[in-house]
Write a structure and sequence with these properties.
Elements lengths: L2 H32 L1 H11 L1 H16 L1 H16 L4 H5 L3 H11 L10 H36 L20 E8 L5 E11 L6 E11 L10 E6 L7 E10 L3
Parallel strand pairs: 3-5
Antiparallel strand pairs: 1-2, 1-4, 2-3, 4-5
Length: 246
């Protein structure tokens, strides 16, 4: 009988100890788990704060592409820059020279007096005249070579258009003015009979004649002959003086 209660006591004590130990161990196991949770919670809360800072930085990173967008906007402008070159080709030579002078960045010439500028212009004209003369001489030499190399025309065939020489008109008149240099004004009087009414009709015309030596004077009777155009109004030349003025 005594053994029976011992056994229950021994059986109860471990049973009692076991449940006591179990709950003690359980909270101890729960406490380390519960204690890190509040510690991790601030960390989890602190983690979002840098994340928020990162979010705040992200707009800056997103704002960085904005210059890139500006650069993209500039690229079309840079690409569009060559486009105006096409109309530049259509500009006149004078406009191209003017733009080239406006873009010229060289040193300016020293200031000069009007006399020096005129001397430079005279020298430039002389240089150009010498070049023109040399070019004309070359052209004449080439033309002579071409004519000599061309086959000669047969002499037995008459020319298609025979040269014909006309007679130049000759008139007699009175000098009415000799004020111009090497030029006289001659009045030519004409008297003719009318073809129908048989009446004498008198008329006069004025011409300008070339007088190389200024021989004729006002009132002289002179003879003039038709000539090539010598000036804007001169188409006649003095032949001789028939009668001097009294």
């Amino acid at each position: 009988m005594a053994d029976e209660p011992d056994t229950p006591d021994e059986q109860d004590t471990p049973e009692a100890e076991q449940p006591q130990d179990a709950p003690d161990a359980a909270p101890e196991a729960e406490q380390p788990e519960a204690t890190p949770e509040p510690e991790t919670a601030p960390e989890a809360e602190a983690a979002p704060e840098p994340a928020a800072d990162g979010d705040a930085d992200q707009p800056e990173a997103e704002a960085a592409p904005e210059p890139a967008a500006d650069g993209d906007a500039e690229q079309p402008e840079a690409e569009a820059a060559p486009e105006p070159a096409e109309p530049a080709e259509q500009l006149s030579s004078k406009e191209r020279r003017r733009r080239a002078r406006s873009r010229h960045s060289g040193t300016a010439k020293p200031s000069r007096t009007p006399q020096e500028r005129q001397a430079e212009r005279v020298e430039l004209r002389k240089t150009k005249a010498a070049r023109r003369r040399a070019r004309r001489v070359q052209e004449r030499a080439k033309a002579a070579e071409r004519r000599s190399a061309a086959p000669a025309t047969p002499e037995d065939l008459p020319p298609v258009h025979a040269p014909s020489g006309g007679t130049r008109r000759m008139r007699q008149g009175v000098v009415v003015s000799d004020k111009a240099e090497k030029t006289i004004t001659v009045r030519i009087d004409v008297a003719r009979r009318h073809r129908r009414y048989e009446k004498i009709v008198r008329s006069s015309s004025t011409v300008h004649a070339h007088d190389e030596n200024n021989e004729a004077h006002e009132g002289d009777v002179v003879r003039v002959v038709e000539s090539r155009p010598l000036s804007r109004t001169k188409r006649w030349a003095l032949v001789d003086v028939l009668e001097r003025a009294r």
